[in-house]
Amino acid sequence: MRPAPARSSRPSGVRAQLHRSERGQASVELVAAIPLVVAVALAVAQLLAAGVARELAGQAAQAGAMAIVQGDGDARAAVRRALPDWSKDRTRVRVDGHHVEVELRPVALLPGLAGTLTARRSADAGPSPEAAVAGGPRG
Fold first, then answer.
1. CB-based burial of residue 110 (10 Å sphere; 0-12 exposed, 13-18 middle, 19+ buried)?
2. Confidence of residue 45 (pLDDT cuts 50, 70, 90)
3. In 3-state terms, what secondary structure has residue 122?
4. Nearest to residue 60, comparing CAs of 20, 88, 18?
5. Sign of the CA dihedral 8, 9, 14, 15?
6. Edge-first strand listing for the sheet containing 91-96
7. Considering the entire predicted model, what is its pTM?
8. Cα separation, 21 vs 27, whole angstroms
9. Helix (H, G, I), strand (E, B), or coil: what is residue 86?
10. Is the Cβ–Cβ distance between 45 and 109 less than 8 Å?
11. Crossing angle of helices 75-82/14-70, nearest 10°?
């Protein structure tokens, strides 16, 4: 009896061609998936930026309302002080009596989305003294 021929670990013939084409297929699929992965990552980052803008706008509105309550001066200035430097040119502040409203556009990672994700937050410093006197005590 003859011993069985040793088999190499490398495929030969048709199997080798299939094996090589499968490797090429995987590379093509990976390259095709990269733009999708990048788009998803950018969308997630844009949503995180919108969340940060919402929190910052809320804190700034509260700072403006606290300035009104404490009589510290300009509520708009208090709002601007409460915001980081990068957001100053992305902010609109409205003060109407004891009501402070802050709009903050998040950083735009995806064109066109920052405007639709603008954060609008408001805070009240309580009723105005005129409204409290006009209402009078309740009994």
1. middle
2. very high
3. strand
4. 88
5. positive
6. 91-96, 99-104, 119-124
7. 0.68
8. 10
9. helix
10. yes
11. 150
